[in-house]
């Protein structure tokens, strides 16, 4: 039986109704977050303005999710909060991927002392739980959105570095890689064209899973007063 090509596997996956339903739900959530100011008549409350005359109201037609102890519409707060959470998660995951891919690819492709140094450095970061390391880094950098993104990225990149390095090492000794070295293909091109593509699948899956984890850790930082500021109506 012939193995499916990469394009064939993509077509097989995209042919499943559950995949399209999941994509539709994800796109709907993203659009709801981006269009929050126009989806609710309580944009000011979503941005944090209190309304004590309406505090702790039960769910109703005017307030589908009710109101909180400050009288703010909970649906509006949810929509505006999603904007901050998704932006922070995108910046953290993107920054972590760049750092992790560079370190993991260089370590796995080179081997030797560079591999050993990079992995021991990665082990130092992995010795700390992400939330604890993020708290220490934010405390050193100062609170705020930018500090939270930087701290979480520094806490998260080692996971991607280890993943990429493992994928690269698993294919580094394959005959087609050795043949590329034998005919004089530059190491940078081998890493970019042959080694990195083997890590992209697991890397994207892990990054997708980590979005929720990053948001939860950021919420932990906010709970102790070190995380990103509350959402505003400015963006």
Structure description:
With 235 residues, this protein is an all-alpha fold. Helices cover 73% and strands 0% of the residues. The chain has 11 helices and no strands. The protein has helices at residues 6-14, 17-34, 36-39, 43-46, 74-110, 112-126, 130-141, 145-172, 175-182, 187-195, 197-223. It is elongated, with a radius of gyration of 23 Å. The chain starts with 5 loop residues before the first helix and ends in a 12-residue tail after the last helix.
List the helices and strands and how they pair.
Elements: H1 6-14, H2 17-34, H3 36-39, H4 43-46, H5 74-110, H6 112-126, H7 130-141, H8 145-172, H9 175-182, H10 187-195, H11 197-223
Distance between the termini: 53 Å
User: C-alpha Rg, in Å?
Assistant: 23 Å
How much strand content do the residues show?
under 5%
Shape: elongated
Structural class: mainly alpha
* Mean pLDDT score: 82
**Number of helical elements:** 11
**Total number of strands:** 0
The oligomerization state is single chain
The biggest sheet, with number of strands, parallel, antiparallel or mixed sense and barrel status, is: none
Residues in helix, %: over 70%
Low-confidence stretches: 1-6
Topology as H/E string? HHHHHHHHHHH
Précis, in short:
This protein has about 240 residues and is an all-alpha fold. The protein is built from 11 helices and no strands.
């Amino acid at each position: 039986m012939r193995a499916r090509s990469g394009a064939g596997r993509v077509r097989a996956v995209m042919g499943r109704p559950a995949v399209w339903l999941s994509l539709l739900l994800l796109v709907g959530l993203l659009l709801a977050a981006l269009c929050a100011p126009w989806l609710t008549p309580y944009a000011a409350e979503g941005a944090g303005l209190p309304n004590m005359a309406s505090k702790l109201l039960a769910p109703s037609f005017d307030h589908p999710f009710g109101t909180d102890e400050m009288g703010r519409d909970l649906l509006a707060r949810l929509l505006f909060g999603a904007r901050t959470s998704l932006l922070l998660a995108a910046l953290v995951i993107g920054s972590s991927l760049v750092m992790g891919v560079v370190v993991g690819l260089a370590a796995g492709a080179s081997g030797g002392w560079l591999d050993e140094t990079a992995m021991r450095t990665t082990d130092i970061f992995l010795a700390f739980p992400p939330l604890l390391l993020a708290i220490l880094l934010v405390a050193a950098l100062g609170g705020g959105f930018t500090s939270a993104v930087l701290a979480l990225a520094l806490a998260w990149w080692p996971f991607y570095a280890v993943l990429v390095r493992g994928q690269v090492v698993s294919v580094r000794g394959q005959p087609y890689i050795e043949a590329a070295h034998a005919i004089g293909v530059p190491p940078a091109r081998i890493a970019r064209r042959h080694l990195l593509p083997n890590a992209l699948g697991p890397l994207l899956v892990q990054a997708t899973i980590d979005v929720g984890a990053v948001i939860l850790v950021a919420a932990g930082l906010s709970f102790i007063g070190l995380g990103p500021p509350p959402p505003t109506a400015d963006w």
